[in-house]
Structure formats: C-alpha cells, structure tokens
Amino acid sequence: MIALAMAAILVLAGGGLAGAAGSAKGSAKRSAKGSAAVGAVVKRYSAVPKFKAPGPAFDAKKLDAGKTLFSIPVDSQDQFVQIIENDMAAVAKRVGINFIDYSNDGNSATWVKGMQQAVAQHANLIDLLAGINPEQLTPEMESAKAAGIPVVASDAYSIGQKADPLLKGVVDVPYATAGTVMADWVIQHTHGHANALVIESNDVVSSPEEAGAAVNAFHRNCRACKVKLINIPVANWASQTQTQVESILRSHPTINYVIPVYDSQSEYVIPAISLAGDTGKVHVVSYDGTAFVLKYLQQHKDVVMDVGEDLKWIAWAIMDQEMRIMAGLKPVPNENTPLMIWTSKNIARAGNPPQQSQGYGNGFEAGYSKLWGLTR
Fold this sequence. Notes:
- This protein has twelve helices and eleven strands.
- The chain is an alpha/beta fold.
- Strand 8, helix 9 (266-275) and strand 9 form a beta-alpha-beta unit.
- It folds into two domains: 60-173 and 310-338 and 361-371, Rossmann fold (3-Layer(aba) Sandwich), CATH 3.40.50.2300; 176-308, Rossmann fold (3-Layer(aba) Sandwich), CATH 3.40.50.
- Mean pLDDT is 88; it is low at 1-30.
- The longest helix has 43 residues, at 2-44.
- Helix 3 packs across helix 11, helix 4 (108-120) packs parallel to helix 5 (138-146) and helix 6 runs parallel beside helix 7 (207-221).
- The strands form two sheets. The protein has a six-stranded mixed β-sheet, sandwiched between helices. Strands 2-1-3-4-5 form a five-stranded parallel β-sheet, sandwiched between helices.
- It is globular and about 60 Å long.
C-alpha cells in the first residue's frame, strides 16, 4: 500500500511538474508574442510619418471659392484649438473660402449660439472642432440639416468610432491607436513592470476610446503590469487633477507612470508628482505633442514620452474633408492623420524650444496641394 501510494504521489508530482512546465512554456510564448507586438508598435510610430492621399483629387478653387465654412471649436482658449483654427483659416484664404472662427468659452450654451448663428448666416458647412459631442447639439443639428447645411465633427471621434447619424461627415483621429502606443511604450521601457495611472476625460467623446485602448494594451501585452483608470472631466482639470493625482500617488506608492490621455493636463499632473515626493520616480507619458509639453520633455521635467500629432497636418486634413463635402463630393473614410513618438532621443527635431508641427516632415503640404489642384 505504501509503495502504491508513493508511486501515485510520484505520478501526480510528475504530472504536476509537466503541467507547470507546459503552463510556463505557454506563458513564455504569450510573453514573447506580447513583446514582439509591443516592439513593432513602438518602432512603427518612432518613424517620421509619410503622406498618404486620403482620396481622389479635386479642384478646390473651382468648387469651393466663395463658400462659407463656419467653425465652432470646443474651447477657443485652448492652445491646441487655436493652432488648428489658424491653419484652417490659412488654407481657406488660399482657396478663397470665407472662414469664420466662432470664438467661445467652451460652454455648451455658447456652442448652441454658434450653431444658431451659422444657420442664420446660411453657412455652407458647420465644423465642430476638437471634441464637441454632437449629441449635445441635436436640435441645432436638425435645424442645420433642415436648412441644407452639412455638419462635420473634426478631431472628435476615434477612427472607427460610431458617429452621430446627423453628421454629414467626420475627420477621425487615431485616438485608440495613441492609447495603445502609450501603453506599449511604457511596457517596453519598464521591461514589463509598469504600474500606471491612466486619466481619461469622458466628457470628450473620444476619451473613453483612447483610455480604453491603453488599459486593454496593458492587459493584453503585459501580464505583470498594473493599471488604474480614473476620470477627470476637462472642465475640472485645473480644480481636481493635482489633488486627485497627489492623493493616489500617496496611497499607491508603487505607481511609476501617470498617463493623462491629453497632454495639456500634464500642467496639473507634474505639480502633483512633486508634492507627493515622487519626482524622478513617477514619469508622465501622454498624447497630442503640444509644444509646452514637449518643452517639459526636453527639459526632463517628468514627461518622458509624448505621442505627437502634427496640428498643421490635422488642420489641412480637416479642410480636405470639409472642402470635399462643400463641393458635393463623397466624404473620404479616413484622412490618414499620423502619430509620432517624441522622446529625449529625437526631441531636438522639434526645435529648441520645441515648435508646434515641427519635426514631422512636410510631405503633406505638397500632397494636399496637389490633391486640391493648387500646384498647377
């Protein structure tokens, strides 16, 4: 009986060891696969982007000159918005379009007034720029549709995200991809030992897509990584970010990365890191490539990576889609706006101090000019 029992124990132990070995091999395979995927993503978005035509060429001056484009930004005080509006206005001037930049304070009541003014002025197209949720303007969009005025949401939705049915078109941005890139970069640079705090702002329509993609990438590609997700609406950044982040860092001392999905929020995250006594220990990774945040990166002020986008390129992409729609042409499904990783290794390309839209290459300018028939 003892011999049989010992034999049974040895069989069970052997089976257990074999199972453990099999599990270890499976885990190793998954880990290797995740590492390869992470490395491929980081490598791809570390390269200078190239222009890819979003659709067929058209004669912009012939089809759009004299028309009125009425742009309503999410908040006119935001530096990101100001840059895009200025570059859109420059393209409009070149084509001969009457461009109206509706100044507002970011309050939904002012967006409503803007929509009403656009309809009253018989605009040829209404642009909702940089995160306005069209669902908040349903009555106004219905009025615009009744008046025959198309409405376009630009830099609001993530690529593939379901858009409001009242919209005539969208200019989607790869927000979800940006979330994945941020997470994968952190995974690579912590060698799979990230403990990240992700901050979304779900009053912006694309924010849950970007934050969700980051969280999913951590879960998919890094078994040992930890991630915590919180929401701070844009309107509350100044009043809540510093206190919330400081409190979380104090109560979760192993956090090593803070990932605000929009880099302008870093302005409030960095003081929180300092007050928590975590300077040099907790780092910031974010998205947008805003010039003042790139300066933080250049000066080694907590920001170690920023997924940038060329705001001038985005402005031209928006104008491409909206000129097509004003001309009665079919909207394109994707303007192919790019992303690029900024770190200490390449930040010099952005200038010193960093300049908005510098360092991404300028192939898009020649590309779009040719598409619009402006180079003949």
